[in-house]
Amino acid sequence: MRVTSPDWIIVGAGFTGAVLAERLASQAGRRVLVVDRRDHIAGNAYDYRGPWDILVHRYGPHIFHTNSKKIWDYLSRFTEWRPYFHHVVAHIDGKYAPIPFNLNTIEDLFPRRMAEAMTQGLIDTYGYGAKVPILRMREEGAEQLRYLADYIYRKVFENYTFKQWSLKPEELDPSVSARVPIHVSRDDRYFQDIYQAMPVDGYSAMFARILAHENITVSTSTEFEAVRGLYPGAKVVFTGPIDEYFKFEHGALPYRSLRFRLFERPGPEAQPVGTVNYPNEFDFTRITEFKHLTGQRADGTILIEEYPEAYVPGRNEPYYPIPTGDTAAALVPYQAMAHQLKGKVWFAGRLGDYAYYNMDQACGRALALFEKQLAVT
Ligand code: FAD
Ligand code: UDP
Known about the structure:
By secondary structure, this protein is of the alpha/beta class.
């Protein structure tokens, strides 16, 4: 595979790579070659039309949310949106109760008097509307709040986290469990961002538009190794795993992977909300029903179960960097190696930065990298 000498090679056609390619092509007038080892664009956000024409997310459910008007406006050039507020319930003590854990969850799970006292205790301690990470709540509060914190820890976080990461919540960076804080309010929405929506035609269609610029050539089913060194003058952005780029010279960084099981059923929605979490039962963590996310009406429905597993190179995908003190330390020598390539190769994205980014963060990282460094290179 050879194209007219590109100025840039971008490895990975996910959010990070696609946005950078678009900026370099449209704003800096550069010729960009985007390669991805998968046989499609859109990275982990890839979706396709399944039975009943339902949009299926191959790599697990992806719900877009952001507080950044800049990111929202940027992506809105490439898609229309369907407003969507994601709701999650967890199966706890035989009931389906809303997550993030909030005042409604307390009401659903505890006798009335007890629930009233807990609610008052939370409001008195943190103030109405506060969002309290579970690890913080476990450290403080009166006896009754300690009971509640221990309950939430045991019933919502401990087993789910162990399934997902093979670690306890306190062994991970506190930001991980803080993604789903306790809400001292009745806000049942899984995300609270200002902008929450799904691309009307799906993510893959949005990516096709992002990458449609005439200065961009996309080559899927192409390993970086196939083009490494082919265009000596070209600069590189690498959005794959940073340790892989350096051939694991300082040891392999750990990642968590998932196995997905898709299943379909005839008929209307099978679940009351988009996702049901199963912290304490089964080997999977959650089941998501796509029709809720896309708002499609169809005679059938498609659901996806997520089974966490260890990442084994060549066998499955490195979906999650694992945020711990140890991995932060293991990343340092790779960051130093990356620094030595300054001006020639840049690393970015969930795998390139080894950072637990949401889609908007990957997009924001790409926009900032372009503005601060690549635009002037
Ligand atoms: P990726 O999408 O991973 O893209 C990197 C690409 O690089 C891949 O396509 C890969 O094939 C390619 N690549 C890697 N190495 C090479 C190589 N050597 N040669 C060629 N190609 C290579 N975020 C949200 O905001 N909301 C959600 O609801 C949400 N749900 C998620 C659910 C799951 C199960 C997972 C795993 C993630 C979820 N995310 C969600 C996060 C989201 O997927 C990421 O933020 C986003 O995909 C990061 O984009 P990226 O471009 O950095 O990486
Ligand atoms: N979490 C949990 N129980 C839940 C939901 C989340 O223990 O019911 C913890 C778990 O450690 C999980 C983390 O919070 O990995 C972040 O959850 P999120 O839903 O943001 O994970 P993602 O969608 O990125 O997989």
